[in-house]
Design goal:
single chain; alpha+beta; Uridine Diphospho-n-acetylenolpyruvylglucosamine Reductase, domain 3; Alpha-Beta Plaits; 7-stranded antiparallel sheet; 5-stranded antiparallel sheet; 18 helices; 18 strands; globular; disordered N terminus; binds flavin-adenine dinucleotide; binds D-malate; binds zinc ion; FAD-bd_PCMH-like_sf; oxidoreductase; FAD-bd_PCMH
Length: about 500
């Protein structure tokens, strides 16, 4: 993991002391303070999980985790940290993949896990207002009882929090249909770095009264304040959902397949996800769902998972079957085979195959994850070029890099290029960076499509943003957080 050093450009920050803990104890209940410092002094093992990220790639050295229950408590914590110049890392479900959710040094960790109440739901407009610490899956279950669905879904749903989703501007598996959080978030409640509470928790669809401040916090990765409440537009649950897995003989077929799918399925298409052969095999190897039989998958270079969400099962199935026939009858056929799920269990199992790639990769080894936006036609070239680069450097073998794979959200032009290694080493990182960033830049792509910059890519932001844009970001950061206490060393160097 990269280490961040104090520079003259960044104000120096102070460590948490026992006096600070005594101060927090005046307004926080005992169960909201986890610290290795007196007067509470828990064992370091108790805060280990907050210092380590999901991949086991980044590790902080924090002594103190605060788990407030209310917005007012968050406000008091930040006011104190602002005055005392203590760095603060907001933490949601800690499922982020760019090292943004754990400290770089010994910043205080502010965990939102105790703020997990649904505040309101309006079944007419679909507006849901919830504490930032609500787990995405819990919200999905809550509104399912009102026949509604969340506008986003991702493999980390069982742990990630809505505040973390908003702060990373998470994309996920439904963006194709329901759009980005920049469209579906209606309002936010944010505690600014000096403790001021900015209550922008609107439930209005339309509100053109000046600057749209909430947009600044969507994707800010905790560098501008702490999101404590989220108002989000949810949709009526579709009457029918179907999914189908397609095995493709060659990658080049993905583009015409996507075109044909959009034409045939139009408004009912709700996901178009891609996994290459290596990703498929890893998912199967690590027990992530069942898709095709060996015969069915044989000879396929890659796979596509399609989902439809519509008003009538028969009507949607008819459309899907017509699509499958067209694909099989084209000359040469665009697909080898397609399997339509026949039950809710099969439906879930097909999704598991796609969503489970992340977990499969982490079981297989240590992953270097590049989450990039590039033209769809270049997905395979980028995977192949990366493989070739590692081969040239003599790193493509069991003891160094085991696999190079690609999967992701084809419908959104977002490829997840993963390099699975036996261990994280400087040699592998040096072979990959800036190689991958330069490659992405040559396609005029983005080095972060949906995961964010975190600690991983601060030095690389210029591959996707101009110097002027970075300078404006720095000025905004300074305006909100003049002492630089919020998530130091993340997003901006
Ligand atoms: P954390 O990891 O805790 O934090 C992420 C960032 O947000 C950090 O910078 C943190 O400081 C900040 N933050 C968290 N909460 C707050 C808050 N309340 N206020 C201010 N800042 C805050 N991402 C996608 O975009 N699409 C996917 O499909 C996807 N799938 C995933 C699948 C798996 C299995 C895993 C492990 C991760 C996946 N991710 C995906 C990445 C990750 O889940 C998302 O980035 C998610 O939105 C992070 O939410 P979290 O609550 O875990 O946030
Ligand atoms: C996904 O699409 O599966 C997620 O973004 C997680 C990952 O990149 O592994
Ligand atoms: Zn993704």
């Amino acid at each position: 993991a990269k280490r961040w050093q104090h520079t003259s450009a960044r104000p120096a920050l102070n460590s948490v002391t026992p006096d600070d803990i005594a101060h927090f104890a005046q307004f926080l209940p005992q169960n909201a303070i986890l610290s290795t410092l007196s007067p509470v002094s828990v064992a370091p093992a108790e805060i280990e999980q907050y210092n380590s990220d999901w991949m086991g790639k980044y590790r902080g050295k924090s002594t103190t985790v605060l788990r407030p229950h209310t917005t007012e408590q968050v406000s008091k914590i930040l006011k104190w940290c602002h005055e005392r110049r203590i760095g603060v890392v907001p933490q949601g479900g800690n499922t982020g993949l760019v090292g943004g959710s754990v400290p770089i040094e010994d910043e205080l960790i502010l965990s939102l896990g105790n703020m997990s109440k649904v505040r309101s739901f309006d079944p007419v407009s679909g507006a849901l207002v919830a504490d930032a610490g609500c787990i995405l899956e819990a919200l999905t279950e809550h509104i399912a009882t009102h026949d509604h669905i969340m506008p986003l879904d991702l493999g980390a749903k069982g742990s990630c929090q809505i505040g973390g989703n908003v702060s990373t501007n998470a994309g996920g598996l439904r963006l194709l249909r329901y759009g980005s959080l920049h469209g579906s978030v209606l309002g936010l409640e944010v505690v600014l770095p000096d403790g001021t509470i900015l209550d922008n928790l609107s439930t209005l669809r339309k509100d053109n009264t000046g600057y749209d401040l909430k947009q600044l916090f969507i994707g800010a990765e905790g560098t501008l304040g702490v999101v404590t409440g989220v108002s989000i537009l949810t949709s009526a649950a579709p009457r029918a959902v179907n999914n189908v897995i397609l095995a493709l003989p060659r990658f080049e077929n993905v583009l015409p397949l996507f075109k044909s799918t959009r034409r045939h399925l139009s408004e009912i298409l709700s996901a178009f996800e891609f996994i290459d052969r290596t990703a498929y095999e890893l998912a199967v190897k690590h027990g992530q769902g069942k898709g095709l039989t060996n015969e069915e998958s044989e000879g396929a270079e890659c796979f596509v998972l399609l989902e439809t969400s519509g008003g009538s099962k028969e009507h949607d199935e008819e459309k899907l079957n017509a699509l499958l026939e067209t694909l099989l009858e084209s000359d040469p056929p665009l697909i080898n085979t397609g399997v339509l799920s026949q039950s809710p269990t099969q439906f879930a199992s097909l999704w598991r195959l796609r969503e489970g790639v992340t977990e499969a990769v982490s079981k297989e080894g240590k992953a270097y994850k590049y989450d990039i936006s590039i033209p769809l036609a270049s997905f395979k070239d980028v995977v192949d070029a990366t493989k070739e680069q590692l081969r040239k450097k003599g790193l493509l073998h069991e003891n160094a890099v085991k696999h190079v794979l690609g999967y992701g959200h084809v419908g959104d032009g977002n490829l997840h290029l993963n390099i699975v290694a036996a261990a994280y080493t400087q040699e592998i990182e040096a072979a990959l960076e800036p190689f991958v960033y330069e490659l992405v830049s040559s396609y005029k792509g983005s080095i972060s499509a949906e995961h964010g910059i975190g600690a991983m890519k601060t030095h690389a932001i210029h591959y996707s943003k101009s110097a002027v844009a970075v300078d404006v970001m720095k000025r905004i950061k300074h305006l909100f957080d003049p002492h630089g206490i919020m998530n130091p060393g993340k997003v901006l160097e």
